[in-house]
Specification:
Blueprint: H1 15-26, E1 32-33, E2 39-46, E3 49-56, H2 67-74, E4 82-87, E5 95-99, H3 107-116, E6 122-127, H4 137-141, H5 147-169, H6 172-187
Parallel strand pairs: 4-6
Antiparallel strand pairs: 1-2, 2-3, 5-6
Helix pairs in contact: 1-5
């Protein structure tokens, strides 16, 4: 998930877009916007499987608006959906994979849950940290990471892209065990 347009391109809120673009690039599949579509998609084969990478163009808070067209065009189900997004509660660059749960105040996730009719889908979170001293959360998520955070967040984007590709070959549980353990051991 993320926000379309150059204004938001390198903001913390767009780490999901950046990870999806990186995963699609590694799979050698280009994202394209179809005429009249509310999303960009990259459809192709990766590791002998059909894959579709998608970026909603509805802005973050309305990400769920694309669920019905994706169900119709790509046979999207909650079992084959993986959402990649930012997370304030994780340190910058930390990558965590979780199955199910609520929105935790993330309006984009809340929108997807509403339109999907379920909260039972896989999420890959990329940590962006909270603003210091109870700062403005909106300004933080829509802001560009500081130089000190940039490298950490880029590492999280790389790990999230790798996790997306690993999910093509492996079960969610195996990928969660590997990536969530890796985060824990890196912070020790």
């Amino acid at each position: 998930m993320g926000n379309p347009g150059t204004k938001y391109q390198n903001t913390r809120h767009n780490v999901g877009f950046l990870a999806v673009e990186k995963a699609a690039g590694r799979a050698d599949i280009a994202l394209k916007k179809g005429f009249g579509k509310k999303f960009r998609a990259a459809e192709g084969r990766c590791r002998d499987r059909k894959v579709v990478f998608v970026e909603p163009l509805t802005y973050m808070n309305n990400s769920g608006h694309i669920i019905y067209p994706l169900k119709k065009k790509y046979q999207l189900t909650r079992e084959n959906l993986v959402v990649v997004c930012d997370n304030l509660d994780l340190a910058p660059g930390e990558c965590r994979i979780k199955s199910g749960g609520g929105s935790a105040g993330h309006n984009g996730l809340a929108s997807i849950i509403q339109y999907l009719g379920s909260n039972d889908f896989l999420r890959i979170y990329i940590g962006i940290g909270r603003p210091p001293y109870r700062g403005d959360v909106v300004a933080h998520v829509l802001g560009v990471p500081s130089d000190s955070e940039k490298k950490e967040i880029e590492d999280g984007i790389d790990r999230a892209a790798e996790a997306v590709l690993q999910l093509i070959d492996h079960t969610p549980q195996k990928v969660m065990n590997e990536f969530n353990r890796r985060n824990h051991s890196e912070s020790d």
